[in-house]
Design brief:
18 helices; mainly alpha
């Protein structure tokens, strides 16, 4: 992973940009489509054919939906067939083992386990192609009449493997009429460097602390266990938001504008507020393509509650083929229902600081549900969060905490809008470009040095 990251930064990306800006405008999407497939096939060559097949049948599905627009039955049939094929492929590659293990719990069944590797980013690009066909059906997006342009949209390497989920209607015009300018390219470099720093300099450090403290949670003591889950809380935010920033920055370098995927979720004052700020593209997808079609809040309170539970159960399942993810999704679904129908009036009267403490307590506990795929380990961890019999701080966890305390403080500050607010004020000064150049250079240099020296460099959302 470390070697691949450096190859991407200093070979693949550099050469791709050089060729992209050398060739003529009419060849740029053709080049991007080809280079996207090279990028995806770098680690999994055979799965490129799966992606090309996905692009082809969704392109065909959109074309058929548009062709039979005046024939409601045929139009709906082609929509359903395309979506069923999308979901079916996702289910086979992502959920076969989970389904097999669940069925084998029955005493009269013994289904052999099938070893199927999960294609990187399949959840992201499947949701993108489904949204395209649905939007064409609803007449919310124009049908793509150019296979290369559509393939470029699906396989666009900046956001291919870990999002954000980009809807076709948001980039349809850009695919054919985008303008690459120096200002936009410079903006992209700055955003990319911020994301790189988040990922390499903060998320990886917090991940090392999390791994060390979660090797055996009962040996950490009460406070040591809390430090471990707080470190993971920072890790998953800076890992995923860092990647989203890099994706948006790379998009800018190629002339695209992607919608923001994170908006400082850890300053939220309610669970509802948190999910308006966290993984915005996924929340929007489930709202527009599942919650509203199910009836949303238009068919009474009982139906609304059922719809919320369905959406959040699916949200959890989307994240992984393990029951802890379903528990995590339903955990939020139930809490959002309680918050909406019971707690809202009470919470609104509390001081903002107490609203924030309430929210972050729930979010941090939720990341415990998300982290532990083994149910036994999960309940052991939850117990240790409140078990004073293990002591407050073991020497082991205390030493680790002290070593990483400066970085935890940096992570705390960086998860708030403080830096962005300060930058906005300084951006009006005459020589801000010098500070920006120095900042980007330092981040790139230090991140490269960290990648060379570190063996720990996971992207958490690759598996989704």
């Amino acid at each position: 992973m470390v070697f691949s990251s450096l190859v991407f930064l200093f070979a693949y990306l550099t050469l791709t940009l050089l060729v992209y800006y050398t060739i003529g405008y009419k060849f740029r999407n053709i080049f991007l489509f080809f280079i996207n497939l090279v990028f995806y096939g770098w680690g999994e060559p055979l799965l490129v054919f799966l992606m090309v097949f996905n692009i082809f049948f969704n392109y065909l599905g959109g074309w058929l939906v548009d062709k039979y627009r005046t024939n409601q039955k045929k139009k709906k049939l082609f929509l359903i067939l395309t979506c069923v094929l999308d979901i079916g492929i996702l289910a086979v590659f992502k959920y076969t083992n989970m389904i097999t293990e669940t069925l084998n719990m029955l005493p009269f069944l013994s289904i052999p386990k099938v070893d199927i590797s999960l294609p990187i980013g399949i959840s992201f690009y499947t949701f993108q192609t489904m949204s395209y066909v649905i939007d064409v059906y609803r007449n919310d997006a124009p049908v793509s009449k150019n296979f290369i342009n559509f393939g470029t949209y699906v396989a666009l390497f900046p956001q291919l493997i870990a999002g954000p989920i980009v809807r076709y209607r948001d980039v349809a015009y850009q695919l054919e009429h985008r303008t690459e300018t120096l200002d936009r390219f410079t903006k992209g470099v700055k955003i990319f460097c911020v994301g790189l720093g988040k990922k390499v300099l903060i998320a990886n450090q917090m991940g090392s602390l999390t791994t060390a403290l979660f090797e055996s949670t009962h040996q950490n003591g009460l406070l040591g266990t809390w430090v471990g889950i707080i470190a993971y809380t920072f890790q998953i935010y800076f890992d995923f938001s860092g990647y989203s920033d890099m994706a948006c920055g790379l998009g800018n370098m190629f002339g695209f504008e992607f919608l923001k995927n994170f908006n400082y979720p850890y300053i939220a004052t309610s669970i509802t507020d948190f999910w308006r700020r966290w993984h915005i593209s996924l929340s929007t997808w489930f709202k527009e393509y599942v919650y509203i079609p199910l009836g949303g809040n238009r068919k009474g309170v009982k139906r609304q509650i059922i719809n919320l539970l369905i959406v959040w159960g699916l949200t959890g399942l989307w994240h992984g083929a393990s029951y802890n993810f379903i528990f995590w999704g339903l955990y939020y679904g139930i809490l959002l229902i309680i918050e909406k129908f019971v707690l809202k009036k009470f919470l609104d009267k509390l001081p903002k600081v107490l609203q924030h403490i309430y929210t972050m307590f729930i979010v941090i506990i939720g990341w415990g549900l998300f982290y532990f795929t083994d149910v036994k380990q999960l309940f052991e961890f939850l117990g240790n969060l409140f078990n004073v019999s293990n002591g407050f701080f073991s020497e082991y966890s205390f030493n680790f905490t002290m070593n990483y305390l400066p970085m935890m403080c940096i992570a705390l500050i960086a998860s708030t809008p403080l830096g962005a607010t300060l930058y906005q004020k300084l951006s009006r000064t005459r020589y801000i470009w010098i500070a920006e150049t120095v900042f980007c250079g330092i981040v790139l240099f230090v991140s490269t040095a960290s990648l060379v020296n570190q063996s720990y460099n996971p992207f958490l959302y690759f598996r989704f």
